[in-house]
Amino acid sequence: MMATDRTIRPPAFAGAFYPASPNRLQKDLETYLSQATPPEIANVRALVAPHAGYVYSGGVAAFAYKLLGEQPALPKRIYLLGPAHRVPFHGVAMTNFRAFKTPLGDHPLDTEKIQQLVASSKVCNTLSAPHTPEHCLEVHIPFIQTVCPSVPVVPMLFGQVDPVIVGKVLNKTLEPGDLIIVSSDLSHFHENEKAHTLDRQFLDALLAGDLAGVAHGEACGNAPAIALMTVAQQQGWEPHLLDYRTSGDVTGEMRQVVGYAAVAYAGKD
Predict the structure, then answer these.
(1) Which domains are delineated in the chain?
(2) Cα(61)–Cα(50) distance, rounded to whole angstroms?
(3) Measured CA distances, 76 to 121, 136, 203, 265 (Å)
């Protein structure tokens, strides 16, 4: 029996949130990306995209990744930020894995940058355990593998932490060519019309740079979003809404829906 490489995080949600078959997964990704029609936006520096099952949110996420794939150059590295759903902890969990495995293969992590963040910041800690059962970062990796193959990822899982402090840490460590991706769904389990109202309030706050409004909004990734907004305010990045839908808009089941949005932040030319 072949030994497991413990330095590689195995997929936890292949076959659940997205297909376990490489051919089916690649075909679904190609379909989502081909159907996405984001506006032309230059100098994309950050994205917000959802992390639900692909049948619900894959089409929305594709707006962000289609736009990323249309940029003239690939990012140097990707900071992938998301909220911990399953394991409670304080700070930001950085991992000692060297790669995330999906049905499409192993995707590299920027282990040097991860070690630098842990060494230089009190809020970033080496905690691989919260990453193992977490879906919010994993579901983005197949999109990244398709659009940005071989671009290393710095996975940052948010526990109990001040997101403004994390944003300041990120702002100091960013290098030219780096990209930030925030993984977040919006409101959960409301009737579709109410979900649209709540999500519009959250997105209006996000687009206006209103940190307090985002903090009080109903989005599971509001902390990573605030960290991104803190960077954007320092860097002068401007947000643009690419797409918004609920699971009800996708499936027709309107009683208990989840909201999804894709947002791009553009830097100054």
Answers:
(1) 16-266 (3.40.830.10)
(2) 6
(3) 22, 22, 28, 17
Whether pTM > 0.90 for this model: the answer is yes
Q: What does the buried/exposed string (b/e) look like for 27-45 if buried means 16 or more CB atoms within 10 Å of the residue's CB?
A: ebbeebbeebebeeeeebb
User: Which tens digit of pLDDT belongs to each residue from 174-185?
Assistant: 999 999 999 999
- Please, are residues 165 and 232 in contact by the beta-carbon 8 Å criterion? no
The predicted-structure confidence for 186-225, as pLDDT tens digits, reads as follows 999 999 999 999 999 999 999 999 999 999 999 999 999 9
